[in-house]
Amino acid sequence: MIPVRGNSAMVAAPGQCGRDSVRRPSPGSRIRDDRPSMRLTPDAGRTAPIIIARCGSAGAEGRTGAVDTGRCVVLDDTLNGGATVFRNPSRIIVAMEPDGVPAALSAMQRALDSGHHLAGYLSYELGYVLEPCLKRWLPPVRTVPLLWFAQFDGPPARLDAARAAALWPCERMYATPATFEWDRATYRERFGSVMESIRAGDIYQANLSMRAGFRLAGNPRALYGRLRRHAGVPYGAFVDDGARQLLSFSPELFFGIDVQGTITTRPMKGTARRDPDDAKDRELREGLCTSAKNRAENLMIVDLLRNDLGRLARTGSVEVPELYAIETYPTVHQMTSTVRATLAPACGVARILRALFPCGSVTGAPKIRAMRIIRDLETSPRGAYCGAIGMFAPDGSARFNVAIRTLTITDGEGELGVGGAVVADSEADQEYDECLLKAGYFEGPRRPIALLETMAYTAGTWPRRHRHLQRMRDSAEALGIPFDMSGATTTLDTAVASGDTADRRVRLRLHENGRFEAEAPAMPVHAAPLKFLVSLQRVRSADPLNRHKTDWRDLCREALAWANAQGADEAIFLNERGEVSEGTYTNIFIERNRRLFTPPLSSGPLPGCLRAELLASGRCEEAVLTMADLQHADRIYLGNSLRGLVRAEPWGPERVVEHQVR
User: Fold this and answer.
1) Is 478 strand, coil or helix?
2) What is 530-650's CATH number, 3.30.2010.10, 3.20.10.10, 3.40.50.300, 3.30.565.10?
């Protein structure tokens, strides 16, 4: 059982609340999360091996301070519904360096012995610290703690499926496609090195993995909400540690312990893709079930975990109640076995982790030798990927996943890992394809995006073309989309290359892969003044995608269709504070006392090219506008680069009617 009384005193450097000082370095622009977070400050002049921080306001020992709204751990069962939510920690236990791990484990044990709950994560690299002969293989440069746990004074909240789904905001966010650090040729080279070790008899299986990077514009919680709707896994998790977010969609149980001291592991080895055709899908599932190669991979890890559990178990209690079971998930079929044992007395946190961590399914076998080999071959630390996320309870129960299919996001910069087992009869290309398949949990639900610019071509000239291309270039850089200026100008020139000098409405589209396309229909004719209505929908001023013109225009299309159905030409949006923001295809301007005003970017409008030109020339000023400002304006204008400034007026019997939000 996990509670073990009478541990020796903990050696720790106390800290104070503030912002976590560990940051993942990344080149280029970042999309930042400006939520306040907590700095864990060790003694001045040195890096503390372990950081213990009491959360909230300062107070006497054992007193809980103010609510910490950032840090949380959610253990999420999207397969069966429901979630376990840990919020408002009273203390944080972090070990960044190897010499802090023993004290951190002692602090965790003392917390459990005192009746507290713990929830958090273990980085894969902790395994190099827990095994003395592997310490010198620990990567010297790491950005994720070796272990991070939050201590909670009371039990977690347990939510049903509906309440669990409601945790995640339905906000717009954009994640770029994942870019893998190894191409196929590089993977083949590393694969060949593993095969040499297998043929030499050093190992008989190694889990070779690689990392991929992506960029996120938006809230990581919104990304988790989108991905979880497609995941259907029993061991999902979301962790916000104040410096980074972990989004885990793991189908694999590392270990679970019940209050009677029964420990269960469910190693997962063997993968087959899904097929939309039911008959083919059943055939693939059956093929996985009968595959000698996949059964051999699975059995190797079952034997490894039987041995690991034997270090903790009562004599004769280790058993394998289920072997080669097939589980089906949205993108893959997986082969899983179950190993179970009864814990011997005095099995505390440290003893359990030293015996089991990391899970053999993400190392290979023999474990120690495999970990040394893959450390030499993999070009970056795994971090939280292939570690574990979960909880310890004071009643002795525990549950941890194997943190596969797991994203780590730091200030908008994301990383994921994929890998697979390499054995004697593995083939490099098949294994590489399996790695790409395993990234389907991220790529499948991810919504592609394209950048748009709509500009005028009139009398053989391009008014404001430089502003449009500059805006597209800036957006491409912010969103991680390749952009080539010469390619953009060539595409535009080709679109109007007929020699016809008629006025045209030219739309340039930039796809995620850097490909341009353009269309140039005749310039439409619009009557003035434009009639507008105020939309029933509100925009979110903090939406990071407001700054970029994209093809994600669902809200605009719906609002414009609604306005057109009422006989109006345009719909105007307010934001969540009731401030005037923008139209569906225009910026809004008001004139008062011969001065022209437009909403600031903080109100949520697109930074339109006409708007930018008017501001730069001094002809317009930014000001927060309300419905009262519209009602008392001398004139109202709607404008964009294509049309210029056009007089506008409200549509309907009243001058301006403010609609209620639905």
Assistant:
1) helix
2) 3.20.10.10
Domain boundaries, the chain: 13-443, 450-519, 530-650
CATH of span 13-443: 3.60.120.10
Q: Is the pTM of this model over 0.70?
A: yes
* pLDDT at site 79: 83
In DSSP notation, 108-168 reads HHHHHHTT-EEEEEE-TTHHHHHSGGGGGGS-S--SS-SEEEEEESSPPEEE-HHHHHTTS
Q: Strand 595-598 and strand 621-622: pairing?
A: parallel
Candidate list 61, 135, 181, 252, residue with the active-site label: 252
pLDDT at residue 653 tops 60: no
Question: What's 617-638 look like in SS3?
Answer: HCCCEECCCCHHHHHCCCEEEE
Looking at residue 502, what is its pLDDT?
81
| DSSP strand pairing (157-159 vs 147-152) | unpaired
Residue with tokens 């095969």: 195
User: Which pLDDT band, with edges at 50, 70 and 90, does 317 fall under?
Assistant: very high
Average of per-residue pLDDT values in the chain? 87
pLDDT at 180 over 80: yes
With contact defined as beta carbons under 8 Å apart, do 50 and 93 qualify? yes
Beta strand ranges found along 449-553 (DSSP E): 450-457, 504-511, 516-519, 530-539
Q: Is the pLDDT of residue 526 over 50?
A: yes
Active site residue 269: yes
**Cis peptide bond N-terminal to 544, omega within 30:** no
* 284 neighbors 276 (Cβ within 8 angstroms): no
Give the CA radius of gyration of the chain: 29
Is 90 exceeded by the pLDDT of residue 660? no
What single letter denotes the amino acid at residue 405? R
**269, 367, 531, 549: which is the annotated catalytic residue?**
269
Q: Which residue has the higher pLDDT, 217 or 66?
A: 217
CATH architecture assigned to 450-519? 2-Layer Sandwich (3.30)
Residue 206 has pLDDT above 80, yes or no: yes
